[in-house]
Structures are given as structure tokens and as C-alpha cells.
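Margin note: ligand = zinc ion.
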Amino acid sequence: MAAVPRRGVFHYDESLRLGIHTFTAGSLEKAALKAVELGANTFQIFSASPRMWRAGLPDSVQVKLLQQARERFDLHPLAIHVNYLINLASVDPVIRPKSIAAFRGELDRAAAIGAEYLVLHPGNYKGRTVDEGIAAFALGLKDAAEGFHAPGLTVLLENTAGSGASLGGRLEELRAIRDLAGELTGLPIGYCLDTCHLLAAGYNVATATGLGATVRHIEKTIGLEHVRLIHANDSKTPLGSHVDRHAHIGAGHIGIEGFRRILRHPKLRKKPFILETPIDKPGDDRRNLDALKLLATAATMEFSTSPEKRAKRLCPKSRTTTTKSN
Ligand SMILES: [Zn+2]
Ligand SMILES: [Zn+2]
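Resulting structure:
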């Protein structure tokens, strides 16, 4: 096993799960150790190249090293984000079978790796109706999961910015997909909510009243208990823009106060939060994770730092940039 990395600089309530997407670069163990080094206690990875249709199962030695690192450093849960090519809502005769086969590969790798969650977008129904897209997605999930069994793994449907014909901008669509897929497959299915996508789709999580209304809407449509993971990303584009561009925490349209309220909301604070923020310059990953920790637990920081220092930490220089959506 590699040398023990240093776990972040801030002490915070370890019952909170705050983490980041890290990259494997051919070594699952390295992705886990990177998360530890940055100070995370939960993380997300791709299990193979996100831009390739085919991939083999991960090396068993690597899987073992990853599992040891996760136990040793209490890294929980582990989420895998599926690749960008898969579109189970498509009925295109080329894209559809490739998507189903590739998603089966994602399921098999997630099970081999021992991940708790497999996050996927509901896809794009271009040329069809929303209902046809939902049906195509649920049937695709059924075909991909034929004969698959991994009790520890839950598939999470991620909300989207809802641009064009992409499914999942409205929470009602996610609910309809889960209901239908639940009837067709034995796969456990929950939700992953992305804060940037929520804002871009028109849910105003940036203000106190907007967040309250959004949480009530979540409770009414999809149920908070089924929201197993939150992607913590600020949004470069404004409320209802339907454009998905991740920004650094505090440097977008959700803002520092918006994230403070989200991270400390009594019904959200015990959910795992995982960053998918851009890395424009070295250290951005650590800075964004530190921002999450400070905002989640600033009550204790208030006793240990001067107001000047605190203000400086909580409002790092505005850095808004775009990144690939996850
Ligand atoms: Zn995503
Ligand atoms: Zn996301």
C-alpha cells in the first residue's frame, strides 16, 4: 500500500460526508488516496474512460487495494459516475444497443469495485415525447440489468439542467422513471441531486425561500429518503437557464450563502455531498473541499478564527469557470 496521505487541514464533524470526484489514472487505489489527501471522506470516480464505449473489468489486485484504502481511511460511500456516451432514453438503432451493453459494463464494474452508488443521467429523448423517453430508459435499464445481482449497489438517477430533449430537469420525470423501472427490474434505484443542475433547471436553491420550497417539492415528488447523494457544484449560468456549467463553490449563481444554507439544511446536512467542480489551477480541488467543510461547520470555526480570517476564507476571490458537466 502507498504511503499514508495527510487528511486535510480542517477538523470537522466526521459524521458529515463531504467529498470530491477524483481520477483513477489507471489506479483505483490512487483515486482513493487522492480523496484522503484532499481531506474527503467520500468520493466519486469513473470506473473506466468516460468517453469510451467498451472497458474490461478492473484488475482484482487494484480492487483489493482500493477496498483496503477505503477501510483504512473510512471512505464511505463510493459513487461511480457512468460514462458520458450512454443514453438509455434513445431509440436510435445504433446508440441504444451500445448504451445497454455499456451500462451493463458499468453495473459489472461497480459491483466488482464494491461501490455503493452508480450515478447515471436519464438521457435524451430527441425526436420523441417525454413519456416515450421515460419508457425507453426504463426498458433499457431492464435489459441491461438482466440476470445482474449485487445487493450492495444502488443506481442513482441524477437530475439534469433540462436542456432541449434531455430528461430529468423536472423531478416529476425522475419519479416517473424510478416508478416504471422499479416495476421492470429488481435494481435498487434512488436519486442523486446536483445543485448546479437544480438551479439551471429552475429550482431556486440559491435563496432561503427558494431552498425551502425546493426541499418541500423534493419531499412531495421523489421523497428525501431516496435522495442518497448530492453533487455540490455552483452554477455559472443563472436560475432557469437550462445550461449546465459547473462553477467553484461560492463563485456562481448559488453563492457562498446559498451553499451555507444547503449544507446546513436540517434535512440535507447528513446526505453525502460530492464536488464536481473545475480544476483551473492547482489546488482548486482542495479549496473547493475546504469551502464545503467550512460552510458545513462554520459554527465551530467562529470560535477559533478572527472575523477577518473567516471572511477571507469564506469568500475566496471570485473564480468562475466552466467545466464538463458530470
Ligand atoms: Zn452527472
Ligand atoms: Zn453532477
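The first helix runs from residue 28 to 38.
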